[in-house]
Amino acid sequence: MKKIAGVIINSSNQLDLDALVRHRSIHTIPIGGKYRLIDFPLSNLVNMAQDLYVGVIGSYNYRSVVDHLKQGQDWNLSRKSNDLLILQGDRSAKIGQVSRISIQDFVDNREFFNKLSDDVEYIVLSGTNVVSNIDLKDILAKHEADKADITLLYKKDYDGEIQNKEVRLVIENQDVKEIIYGNEKNKKGELFIDSLIINRQLFMDILDEAEKRGLVDFVELVDQCLGDCRVRAYNVPGYVKIINSIQAYFECSMDLLKCEVNQELFKQTRKVYTKAKDNHPTVYGKHAHVRKALVASGAIVNGTVEDSIVFRNATIHEGAKIKNSVIMQGAVVEPEAVVVNAILDKNAVVKRGEFITSTTKEPILIQKRA
Predict the structure, then answer these.
(1) pLDDT in tens, 102-152
(2) Could you count the other beta carbons within 10 Å of the beta carbon of residue 362?
(3) C-alpha distances out from residue 55 to 39, 124, 335, Å
(4) Most exposed residue of 96, 227, 314, 342, measured as fewest CB within 10 angstroms of its CB?
(5) Does residue 271 form part of some domain?
(6) Residue 269 contacts by C-beta under 8 Å, 6 or more apart in sequence?
(7) Residue 351's domain spans which residues?
(8) Residue 89: its pLDDT value, please?
(9) Is residue 273 part of a domain?
C-alpha cells in the first residue's frame, strides 16, 4: 500500500462568509448539527488510505482548528503510522489579491514536504470548504491508470454561487485543455473544487519553480504545465457544495434536511468523522413539536422546530418557534420568540418575544454571543 500525503488548504474563497469567520477559522465553521467544515475533506483523506500523512494549513484564527483536531484521534490519525500536523499559513494574504491555492503556504511549510518518507508517491490537496463525501481511493486508481501527472477534481454543472475568482476547467475527453478564472458572467468550463492529486516529484518541481519566480498561485503554475504534463479531470459525482458565502452555508444546511442528501453524505461505508463529545440525549419537553429537523444530542427542545438544524447544547424554550433556521451550539431561543430563515451562531440569545425573520435568499446571521 502506497503512502499518501494529504494537505487541507486554507481556502481563499471566504470573503463573503462575514461574521462566520470573524472569530474562527473557515476550517471550523459548524455545520449539520455536530460537524465542522474540515470534517469532510479530512474524512475523505482518512477513508482513502491507511498509511497517511496529513497537514492542515491553518490561518491566523488557528486556535479553533487546534481545539477541534487535537491529536487527530477522532479521525484515527493518532497511530504511529499516521501523522497529523497543523501547518502555518495565510501569510500571503493581500488586499485585492486572491490566489486559489497559495504557493506561499507550501513554501512556508517546505519542511513538511521534505520530511515525507521516500515511499510517498502522491500528494492530495483538498479545499477545506467543500461539503462532499468523495471517493478519493477511486480517483487515485483512475489517476494511476491514466498515467496522469495531475488530476483536477471538478463538479459538472455546478449550480451554486460563483465568487472570488473561481476556477473553471475546459475539458476534452477528460484532459484539461484550459484553466479559466471565472465569475457569474463567465460560465465557460466546469467548476474546479480546489482539490487535486499530483505526483510528488512534480509537486516539488513546481514548488522550486515558484520560489525562483516569486509566483503566488499554484493553479497558475498548473495552467503553465498543461503543454508538458498530462493533466486529467475527474467529475465528482453526487452532492457537492462550496461554502463561500452566508447564502451558500444556509443553502447547504437546508440541503442536509433532504433525505437523499443526508443519506449520501452520512449513511455509507465512507464515514464522516468528527470530534467526539459526551452529551446527554436530546431532551424533548411535553410541549415540543419537531418536524423535519436535525437535532443533535445535548439539545433541549420545548418549543416548535420545523425544517431546521439544532446543534448540541442549544435550548429552545416553550412557546418559541423555529422555522428554516440553523441554531448553533449553546444558542438560546427564549419563550414566545420567533426565528425564521436565520442563522444563530454559537451562544447567541434571542430574547423573549423577539422576532428574527427574513427570506431564504437573504438569511439573517446573528453573531456569536450576540
Answers:
(1) 888 898 889 999 989 888 999 999 999 999 999 999 999 999 999 999 999
(2) 10
(3) 14, 10, 45
(4) 96
(5) no
(6) none
(7) 283-366
(8) 74
(9) no
Check residue 90 and give its pLDDT: 66
Q: Which residues on adjacent β-strands are paired with residue 333?
A: 316, 350
C-alpha cell recorded at residue 323:
422555522
Beta carbons of 131 and 37 less than 8 angstroms apart = yes
Nearest-angstrom CA–CA distance, 154 and 264: 18
Q: Residue 362: beta bridge partners?
A: 359
- CB-based contacts of 265, cutoff 8 Å, min separation 6: 131, 132, 133, 239, 256, 272
How far is Cα 188 from Cα 167, in angstroms, rounded to an integer?
Answer: 10
CA atoms within 13 A on the CB side of 289: 9
Whether 100 is covered by a domain: the verdict is yes
Angle, to 10 degrees, between the axis of helix 200-213 and the axis of helix 218-225? 110
Taking the CA atoms of the chain, what radius of gyration do you get in angstroms? 21
* Same domain as 214, residue 93: yes
Given a cut of 70, the residues of the chain with pLDDT beneath it are 1-2, 12-15, 78-82, 90-99, 162-165, 182-187
The three grid cell numbers given for residue 43, joined into one nine-digit string: 474524512
Work out how many domains the chain is built from and give that number: 2
pLDDT in tens, 209-261: 888 887 788 888 899 889 899 999 999 999 999 998 899 999 999 999 999 99
CA atoms within 13 A on the CB side of 326: 29
Q: For residue 93, which amino acid is it?
A: A
Sequence-ordered alpha helix ranges (H) in the chain: 39-46, 63-69, 103-108, 110-114, 136-145, 200-213, 218-225, 246-255, 259-266
Do 258 and 291 lie in one domain? The reply is: no
Half-sphere exposure (Cβ direction) of 88: Cα atoms closer than 13 Å: 8
Q: For residue 123, how many other CB atoms are within 10 A of its CB?
A: 23
